[in-house]
Design goal:
Layout lengths: L2 H13 L10 H5 L9 H4 L15 E7 L5 H15 L6 E6 L6 E6 L1 H7 L5 E5 L23 E12 L13 E6 L12 H11 L2 H6 L5 E10 L2 E3 L2 E6 L6 H16 L3 E4 L14 H12 L3 E5 L14 H4 L21 E6 L17 E2 L24 E4 L4 E2 L5 E2 L7 E4 L7 E4 L6 H14 L5 H10 L1 E2 L9 H8 L3 E2 L1 H5 L5 E11 L3 E7 L2 H4 L5 E9 L13 E8 L4 H9 L24 H4 L4 E8 L9 E10 L7 E12 L7 H8 L9
Parallel strand pairs: 5-7, 5-10, 6-7, 10-11, 11-12, 12-14
Antiparallel strand pairs: 1-3, 1-4, 2-3, 8-9, 13-15, 15-16, 17-18, 19-20, 21-27, 22-26, 23-25, 23-27, 24-26
Length: about 675
């Protein structure tokens, strides 16, 4: 309803009195509970001073005008803004984007003009222009002698399978410990920057942080690199497996070489298919990675793959279609990230302030995603057998539309910064899930160094338990957001350590096929009492055998319940010792004794990494000082018993009471690693 008609109908509705039932728009107005004014505070965006806060010099601002129905209206609204700015000699319009949907006036304003603009009805918001964290001039041509010497932290050996990692002064021998190729005797073409870029993030985690002085130059090593790719001469921006050997065989040889020669158990593979997985069976490549992860007890981190603009339907309006297109069939994760026993990594944006190489930005330049939201190129699930994929998310960049609606990829304000070496420069920018994956692999290597006896399952479970939800880019429900973001973005401190208000208990072992294991979970009295935002999270990881030719790809499935206010004997009678006669079996509790976790079991049980959480403001101390996690294994028809390895992580966390010391309470009562089995 356009404003003039809305005002007329509202006046008629208000004047109708007892005859309001016949007034125009009655149904619409009857549904409105309250009109709220849109005023100065609503228009005040980031960086704009509060009323009464003086500033001496004119400041640059972006005046964002309400979207218009057509170009003529947009120009009229921009003219309203220009008239206000023209009142002061100290103010000036710098440039303007007069398009109907993206109307922005960049101006220099003094205090009086700003005050008038904050009252102007055509203005939606005023903010200081988005500023990138680093301007290219501060790092683009920096020389190595301008940087501090990096400190090296030795962690578990890290495997990198990619294009060649080139010599780089920020990758000393203690970090980049070995390089080879598969096949070793291939006459390789000059490399792309892809492998070196990935290696920079594998080593440093966040190169931009170090350049900005927000963190030290701390490189993790040793990295053992195997070259399996080279640039495709027909498409210089693409890479290829250069020989006649099948891709799965090349990757397997690389993994086995690193595992045998250097005891590598953490691998980063930022190499995926160009197309979405479409099923019904996975490829040999995916199956071999799943088998290798199980056989070698290895953590294999795989990029989820990228969508390209030409993957989307013709004439797609990226800004208008984002983020809904992330759920389309064509956006599904690519192989081998579809695999069950690998960790698939999607991408989130870390910045939304566009900038060109010369350090300028225009008001019409728009980043598609906001910080913390899914990158516009990331891929989504489900994975094979309807599993949650990607498993986790990390920062991998963003896209920008310039003021002519052309895609700028990469952009120097919103893309990822890492190491390059094809020219004299040390750093470059790029986008992709390829650059999210090594950050997770680096954290996995740090976990394995901290807990050298941990299985790959335990490392995966600790990563899952450490994940926090990402920003919801739209009104996605929880299931839709999981399809895009999996379990979320891991936080390093949560994966590596327990702390006073947050403690993790772990189990690393096996379960016999088609049986149930009961794990007691100690609940400290101070955690159960009082009102506070608290949670109990359970992460389960296992590594089943796989068969791509079977309808059931996994050899078995696992699931778990959290149980309280039940004795161990009652739990055994309900979950374990069920009679063969179905009519005599006990139903699982449907009340508070078996609280509902998020996500539900039905949404999780197809995944080999499951993370489910109970959040409550209050717990009942009468439920006792012990809860239970009941873990169940169910075999597929094609398997023959045996045992299944799995790991369990249970996290108790109080988000409000920082003075509570759960770690001390639990170390007194039970060992940190729970090994109770029934």
């Amino acid at each position: 309803m356009i404003p003039a008609i809305l005002r007329r109908h509202l006046g008629e509705y208000g004047a109708a009195g007892e005859r309001a039932a016949a007034a125009p728009g009655r149904t619409f107005f009857d549904s409105i509970e309250e009109f709220l004014p849109y005023g100065r505070q609503d228009r005040r965006g980031p960086g704009i001073p509060a009323d009464g806060e003086d500033f001496d010099e004119a400041m640059a601002v972006d005046v964002i005008v309400w979207p218009s129905p057509d170009a003529q209206t947009a120009r009229a609204r921009v003219n309203d803004v220009r008239l206000v700015i023209a009142q002061s000699d100290a103010a000036a319009v710098l440039t303007a984007d007069e398009r109907a949907r993206f109307t922005v006036v960049r101006a220099r304003v003094d205090q009086a003009v700003l005050a008038d603009l904050l009252d102007l009805p055509v203005v939606e918001r005023i903010r200081v222009p988005p500023a990138p964290r680093l301007e290219p001039s501060t790092w683009r041509n920096v020389a190595i002698d301008e940087l501090p010497e990096p400190r090296v932290e030795i962690v578990a050996p890290m495997g990198l399978i990619d294009d060649e990692v080139m010599d780089h002064p920020l990758l000393p021998a203690a970090v980049l410990a070995s390089r080879t190729g598969v096949p070793a005797d291939h006459p390789w073409l000059p490399p792309s920057d892809h492998g070196t870029f990935v290696a920079g993030l594998y080593a440093y985690g966040d190169v931009e942080d170090a350049l900005a002085g927000a963190s030290e130059w701390l490189a993790c090593g040793p990295i053992h690199a195997v070259r399996v790719l080279e640039p495709d001469p027909r498409m210089p921006d693409r890479t290829r497996f250069p020989t006649a050997q099948p891709a799965h065989l090349v990757i397997e040889k690389a993994i086995r070489h690193l595992h045998t020669e250097y005891s590598v158990r953490v691998f980063n593979l930022s190499v995926t298919d160009d197309v979405a997985y479409s099923g019904p069976h996975v490829s040999v490549w995916t199956e071999r990675l799943d088998e290798l992860a199980r056989e070698l007890n290895a953590v294999i981190v795989v990029a989820a793959g990228n969508q390209r603009p030409d993957d989307l339907p013709p004439q797609t309006d990226l800004l208008g279609a984002y983020p809904s297109y992330l759920l389309a069939d064509g956006a599904r994760v690519a192989e081998p990230a579809i695999g069950a026993n690998v960790i698939a990594i999607g991408s989130i944006a870390h910045a939304d302030a566009p900038q060109t190489l010369d350090g300028t930005s225009r008001p019409g330049d728009r980043a598609i995603a906001k910080p913390g939201q899914p990158s516009p190129f990331t891929r989504s699930g489900p994975g094979t057998a309807d599993a949650i994929k990607p498993d986790l998310m990390e920062r991998g960049g963003n896209w920008v539309l310039d003021d002519t609606d052309r895609l700028r990829d990469p952009d120097y304000g919103v893309s990822i910064i890492s190491l390059v070496r094809r020219d004299p420069r040390l750093f470059g920018v790029a986008n992709g899930t390829s650059f999210a994956a090594p950050r997770i692999a680096r954290l996995a290597a740090r976990i394995l160094h901290r807990y050298p006896d941990a299985s790959a399952n335990l490392v995966r479970a600790l990563l899952g338990a450490a994940a926090a939800p990402i920003e919801n880019p739209a009104a996605f429900d929880a299931k839709e957001l999981r399809r895009i973001a999996g379990h979320g973005q891991p936080r390093a401190h949560r994966a590596l350590d327990s702390a006073a208000p947050r403690v993790a208990m772990t189990f690393d072992g096996t379960i016999a096929a088609d049986t149930v294991v009961i794990h007691p979970v100690a609940i400290p009295d101070e955690f159960a009492r009082g009102g506070s935002s608290r949670s109990i999270s359970v992460a389960l990881a296992f590594d089943p055998e796989v068969r791509r030719t079977r309808r059931e790809y996994l050899a078995g499935r696992m699931s778990f319940d959290l149980v309280r206010n039940m004795s161990i004997d009652d739990i055994k009678a309900t979950w374990v010792k069920q009679p063969d006669d179905k009519d005599l079996r006990r139903d699982l509790p449907g009340d508070r004794r078996r609280p509902k976790l998020e996500p539900g079991m039905q949404d999780s049980q197809d995944s080999t990494l499951q993370v489910r959480t109970l959040r409550r403001k209050r717990l009942d101390p009468d439920d006792g000082d012990t809860y239970y996690v009941v873990v169940r294994h169910t075999s597929s028809a094609w398997t023959e018993g045996g045992e299944q390895r799995y790991a369990l992580v249970v996290v108790l966390e109080d988000e409000e009471r920082q003075n509570i010391d759960l770690y001390a309470s639990l170390t007194v009562r039970v060992p940190v690693r729970v090994r109770v089995r029934s």
